[in-house]
Amino acid sequence: MFDLATHPIARRWPARHPDRIQLYSFPTPNGVKAAIALEEMGLPYEAHRVTLSDEDVKSPEFTALNPNGKIPALIDPNGPDGPLALFESGAILAYLAEKSGKFGGATTAERYEILQWVMFQMGGLGPMFGQMGFFWKFAGKDIEDPRPRERYANEARRLLGVIETALDGREWIAGDYSIADMAIGPWLNALNFYETKEQVGWTDHPRCVAYLDRFMARPAVQTGLKTPPREG
């Protein structure tokens, strides 16, 4: 337990509304998951812009909250046993679903079906898509050896196939709309940013295409994708 007012994070990102959930994030595919969840669940929160520069994420103030130095991170001043600090977007989604009683499944079986897809995104979709982006769009594209690009594009295509199969007869990945969709949707949308839709055969996955369209049409998603703003 800690006091938000005296926590090191408050020196750099002071809370104007300390009674609300404090979100420390940036609009990346991982960062927007928490903002989308907060918007969907209607939980009062205050968003703080933490850029991906070492000056922010590796600062002593931020690493006092998340020793891994990655966004997003969160403080709930009204946690179950007092103020609660969390990092890792999957843990944040699970916590917010439990706190709000929304989008986490109505039964134990539903809860674990949803969580398995959150873990699928955390362990597969996010890391593989992220590496694909690095080797196709960013510094890795200058490496002459084509094998890294091929490896991650092939794995991304395989993972899309898993989602395509799972969506057979379903609008959402685990039945009803859930935190699993809030985890997966932003990473499918990242294919636009990485400019790799052609490499993964996006149009060969019509269920994924329709799924992302449904996801992006949600007002809470549109707000969450811009929270906090990319520019200060």
Q: In this structure, how is the largest beta sheet organized?
A: 4 strands, mixed
Quaternary structure of the protein: single chain
- On the 0 to 100 scale, the average pLDDT is 94
Give the C-alpha Rg. Answer: 18 Å
List the domain count as a whole number.
2
- In DSSP terms (H or I, runs of 4 or more residues), the helix count works out at 10
The order of strands across the largest sheet is 2-1-3-4
The top-level CATH class of the largest domain is Mainly Alpha
Distance between the termini: 31 Å
Stated plainly, the CATH topology of the largest domain is called Glutathione S-transferase Yfyf (Class Pi), Chain A, domain 2
Indicate the overall shape. Answer: globular
What structural class do you assign from the helix and strand content? alpha+beta
Q: Indicate the proportion of strand residues.
A: 5-15%
* CATH architecture tag of the largest domain: Up-down Bundle
Helical fraction = 40-55%
What is the β-strand count? 4
H and E string: HEHEHHEEHHHHHH
